[in-house]
C-alpha cells in the first residue's frame, strides 16, 4: 500500500469542524469526505456518539492513534507498526466465514461495504498496559455481518483470525507470538451493539498499523481483544483459543474485560495514562461502558473469569 | 598491555559520553519529541541503560583478571556510578513523572508487582555501593568490609535483569541475553573462588 502523505491526512481541527458541519449537512457531504475505497453508505448521525464522551474525554490526535500501536505482526515496538507496515497490501480483501454457519462464505470487503451502512463510533480504547486513547472509528456493528453469515443455533462463540503474510508482515517472520493471531468473543458479546468491525478512523481508511482493512473494536475489553486485519471469522461451539491467553493464561483471560479491580501482575489496572495527558486517571469499570455491557456478565465471577 | 595511564586518559571523554544519552533523552522529552508516550519511553531508555552499565562493570571485573585488561579496573568505579545515576533517573521518572508522587499507589505497586519489587530491591542494593565509592572509603571501612558491600552488585545485576525480563511481554531475547551474560560471569567467579583459591 502506498504511504499516506501528510497532506492526505485530515487535520484534527478540520475533522472536528466537519463533524459539526455534518450534523446539519446532507449525507452526501460526508460520503464525499471519505477516501474513495471507503465509499459505503455513511450514517451522518454522529452527534449521539459524541455525546457518549465523558465531559473530560477528548479525542486523541490522528498522529497519536497512527504512530503508537501494538501490532506485533509488524514488530514489538510501539512505532514499529507505523514504520514497518508499508509492504502490507490490504486490497483487495476477502473475508472467510466458516464453521457453524448455514453455508461457508467468502466475501469481498468492497462488495460488503456496498451493502452495509458505515457509522461513526467514538470509543475509549484501554490497553492492558495501562494507557488509553479516545478514537473516532468508522465501522459497522459486527451483528450485521453475523446476520449475513447466518450461524447455526449451536454456534456459541466466534473466533477471529488475523491474516498470515510473513512477506508483508515482518514480525511474523520471527516467533514473537504463535502466528496467526487469534481472538474470540462469546456470541452475546459479539451481538452487543457496541461491538463493531471498523474500516476507518478520522474519516480515512484504516492505515495498515491500525489493522487495515478490517478490524474488531470491542471498547469494554482490553485493546488486544480488538483483533486487526481479520481474514477469517469462524463460528464455533466451544470457547475458542485467543493468542495472549494461550501465551500467558495467568495474565490474560479469555474475557479480558477492562476491570479496575482485577490486578495484572505487570500493571495495576486501577489507573491509566491517557495518551497526551500527564496525570494518570482512574480506570472505569468496563472502560466506562458498564451500562451497556454489565448485564452480559451478571452471574459471573469476574475475578475468576478475568 | 593497556597502560593505566592510557586508560586514565580516556576517563574524561567516557564521562561525557555516558552523560550524553540522559541529556539527549531529557532534551527530547522537553521538546516533545520522545514519541506519543514519552514518560514510558524515557523510563525504558533510562532503565535499559542502567542495566547495560551494571553488566559492563561485571564484565570489566572479569576481564581485569587478564593481564592485558587489568588497567580497565580504573574505569569500573566510574561506570558503576553512572549505572547508579541512570537507576536514580529511572526511579525518579517512575515516582515523579509516571505517578506524580502518589506514594500510596507506588508503595502498593512495589509490594504487589514482583517485577517492580525486584527493580526496587536492586536499587536499594546499589545505594551502599554508591555511597562507599569515594576515595578513602576502602581505607575507612577496611578492604574486607568494603569488598563485602560491593558484592551487592551480584544481587543488583540478577534482580534488575529479571526486572527487565518480567516486564517484556513477548520475545524475551534481549533480557535473556543479559541474564545469560550475568550467569556466565557469575559462574566464572564461583569457579575462580572454588578452584583457584588465592
Descriptive overview:
The complex is a heterodimer of chains A (306) and B (198). Chain A is an alpha+beta fold. Chain A has a single domain (6-297), classed as Oxidoreductase, molybdopterin-binding domain (Sulfite Oxidase, Chain A, domain 2, Alpha-Beta Complex), CATH 3.90.420.10. Chain A contains 10 helices and 13 strands. In chain A, the strands form 2 sheets. In chain A, strands 1, 4, 5, 8, 9, 10, 12 and 13 form an 8-stranded mixed beta sheet that branches. In chain A, strands 3-2-11-6-7 form a 5-stranded mixed beta sheet. The N and C termini of chain A lie far apart (38 Å). The model of chain A is unreliable at 6-46 (pLDDT under 50). By secondary structure, chain B is mainly alpha-helical. Chain B has one domain (4-195). Helix content of chain B is 79%, strand content 0%. Chain B contains 10 helices and no strands. In chain B, helix 4 (73-98) packs across helix 6 and helix 6 (114-131) runs antiparallel to helix 9 (153-167). The longest helix of chain B is centred in the first third of the chain and has 26 residues, at 38-63. The model of chain B has no long low-confidence stretch (mean pLDDT 92). The interface between A and B is medium-sized, with 27 and 22 residues.
